[in-house]
Design brief:
- The protein has one domain: Rossmann fold, CATH 3.40.50.
- It is of the alpha/beta class.
């Protein structure tokens, strides 16, 4: 089964879990993974989906055993475990990474659709990630909307600054990657 078939099937069966209209495209995935290096000790991807961004992260040369994947959808987790041996796949919501993940993350790459979420849920996800990350490590978030994917209140709460990529037209829908960092 192709990624698109799996994605669409899960979208129809579990619309509350799948909020994007298609898997992330290769150009957007490459932009999301741009800051990952082979020297990093630990990276987490939240909302890993069918693994497009995962593939881009591993293409940077990061060893699979240094990558943790968090995905809410069980069918996607099965696909991720089969496709990316050596990675640690967790069938959990992103905000629960604090219960199972490794600390000292060099980066968190997020495919979780945060823009439509209430501030409390955004804060739970970002707070969990930040508690697991090294100081100053990047939290990279994809978005399809015109606004930053984390609300102003959440950014202020955690002291986050951000930088955004150019619009990635080779994605359905067009996307941007935002890099958030916590102030020292």
């Amino acid at each position: 089964m192709s990624d698109l078939s799996l994605f669409l099937g899960q979208f129809l069966r579990r619309p509350s879990e799948i909020r994007a209209i298609a898997p992330t495209g290769r150009a957007a995935a490459a932009e999301m993974a741009r800051l990952v290096t082979p020297q990093m000790e630990a990276v987490a991807e939240i909302g890993a989906g069918t693994g497009t961004i995962t593939r881009a992260i591993l293409a940077t040369g990061l060893p699979p055993e240094r990558l943790e994947l968090y995905e809410l959808n069980a069918a996607f987790c099965t696909r991720l475990a089969e496709r990316f041996p050596g990675t640690r796949v967790h069938n959990l919501p992103a905000q629960e990474m604090v219960n199972v993940g490794r600390k000292g993350l060099d980066a968190v790459i997020s495919g979780v659709p945060t823009l439509p979420m209430p501030d409390e849920l955004q804060a739970a996800i970002v707070g969990a990630a930040l508690s697991m990350m090294k100081p100053g490590a990047p939290f990279v978030q994809i978005t399809y909307g015109p606004l930053p994917p984390l609300s102003e209140a959440v950014r202020a709460r955690f002291g986050l600054s951000h930088r955004k990529s150019r619009r990635i037209w080779a994605n359905l829908p067009p996307a941007r990657a935002y890099v958030f960092r916590q102030s020292a």
